[in-house]
Amino acid sequence: MKFLFDLIPLLLFFAAYKLSGWNAEAAQHFINTYLSGMISGGSVKPDESPIVIATLVGILATMAQIGYIKARGRKVDFVLWFSLAMFVFFGGLTIYLHDEDFIKWKLSIVYWFFASGLLVSELVFKKNLMRKSMEEIVQLPDLIWGRLNLAWICFFVAMGFLNWYVAFVLFKGDTSSWVSFKAFGSTAIMFVFIVGQTIYLSRHIKDEA
Question: CA dihedral defined by 55, 59, 61, 65, rounded to 10 degrees?
Fold first, then answer.
């Protein structure tokens, strides 16, 4: 259930982009009429309007997600706060400059930040963040915790480069295809990785009996 909850901003981003793309002139009119103060030059072209609308929807959806969690009296984890900060920064640049490159870079930078955090914490502070986040629900040998941390570092680095390749090489100039990859391709890869991780870890879980 949490996995689906975490996907809400991404799915709304995808839906907003597609709907705006199908109604580009209406989206352009909305932006130029009601959001001109947020836009450099005060207006956008029809082909620029979908990413502006989608980015704004994504930012608002992430804010609403955090508001919902806090309203229920639950703690908002660092990952979600960081995601919002990156969304606001890179998304704000995308909206103001109506330049899709900023929001495309955001995903790679987030992946690389997570990889760097795991690596620096392990090498400098001698703390395994994967172990810290999961140790309460699963018990594993020390060697496996180390492998798990390394696996996530490699995964995040690879995903950052994959997003860069898809956004700026494979689908260069085709933002619609990148949006589809962001919503479903990267999500599917993440899901497969987690399933594979679960299968691997199940063979090494310590018997507490």
Answer: 150
Phi, psi of 76, deg, nearest 5: -85, 120
Q: Burial of 196 by CB count in 10 Å (0-12 exposed, 13-18 middle, 19+ buried)? A: exposed
Predicted confidence at residue 1, as pLDDT, reads 58
The upper half-sphere exposure of residue 201, i.e. CA atoms within 13 Å in the direction of its Cβ, equals 21
- Output the pTM of the full model: 0.90
Residue where a domain terminates, one of 99, 133, 158: 99
Q: Are 189 and 159 in contact (CB under 8 A)?
A: yes
The angle that helices 24-34 and 49-71 make with each other, rounded to 10 degrees, is 70
Neighbours of 174 (CB within 10 A): 12
Segments in the chain below pLDDT 50: 208-209
Q: Of the candidates 66, 99, 132, which is a domain's last residue?
A: 99
* Tokens found for residue 41: 């030059």
Same domain membership, residue 200 and residue 107: yes
**Domain containing 46: what range?**
1-99
